[in-house]
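Entry 12.
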Amino acid sequence: MEKVEWQDAYCIGVEEVDLQHKKLLSIVNEFYDVATGHPADYPIKVGKCLKKLADYTHYHFSAEEVLMERYQFPNRIQHKFEHENFISQLGAMVPRIASGNQEAGQKLYTFLLDWIVNHIAHSDKVWADHVITIQENPEEHYRTYRRPGVIPIFH
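Predicted 3D structure (tokens):
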């Protein structure tokens, strides 16, 4: 198990979200430091780190979901379900991790890293491409998808 640093290959092309992904990976790496650090420090630091991870994950997922709604990403409900499923899986792991089980913390790090990197590369990249297409040609998108009484909001 090794710490993973941000790579430009993780960028999805939506700057605001790329910055959030960098921050999220940074928090996951803080968790790595706790999970692989001195065993006596683990019970003291793990709760604070989990709280930081949970708070930022909530903020980040909410921000993504707002963008998907704003740009009417067709699979936004499925994407939101992926977020909810992740939170549920994380919640199921927390009791063992918070009890001071450092090995469980190391397994959580591996889960977090795998999920986040795969989610960015696959799911987030799809909706980001949708957003970028609209940003590059909003008038065409509006003509194609307009609905009576709906005024498009593009930034």
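Annotation: The mean pLDDT is 89. The two ends are 41 Å apart (CA to CA).
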